[in-house]
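We examine the record.
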Amino acid sequence: MDSATRNAPGTHGEPRIRAATPADLDAVLAFWKIAAEGTSISDDREGVERLVTRDPGALIIAEDGGAIVGTVIAGFDGWRCHLYRLAVHPDRRRRGIGGALLMAAEERFVQWGGRRADAMVLERNTLAHRAWDTAGYGPQQQWRRWVKSLADRAAGPSPR
C-alpha cells in the first residue's frame, strides 16, 4: 500500500484503507477504546503522534463514511516486521476489514524487504486468535515476550 489509499471510499462497499495522518489521532484513540482489547502504555496522544511522525505509513486505518472502522500498526525496524493494534469495530467484524488491513500491512512489509511478520496478541483474546489464525498466523510457543517499562528512565538517568 502506498501512503495514499488502497481503494476509494465506497468502492464495492468496502472501507477505504489508508495511512493515518496527524488529523486522525484523536479519532484513533477514541476508536481503540471501543474496538481494541486491552491497553498499552503508548495509548495516548503523545505516543500515537510519535509513531505517525517517525513512521508515517505505520498506522493503517480502515474508514467508512469518514468513521474509523479498523486499525493496524505495521512497524518495520529494518529487520523485523511487527503488527500491533489490529482492531475492528465490534459492529463491523467478520466482514473482511481485518483481512484488508493485514493485507495492506503485509504489502508494506514486502515493499520494505520484510521476510516474516509477527503480531502481538493477548493470550485471553480468543476472538483475535481466530482472526489471526484465519489470516495465516500462528503462535510460536518457544518464544515469550519480555518487557521492561522505561517510564522511570524518562525523567533521566538514575544515580548509581
User: Anything to note?
Assistant: The CA atoms of residues 21 and 52 lie 7 Å apart. Helices lie at 25-35, 45-54, 97-112, 126-134.
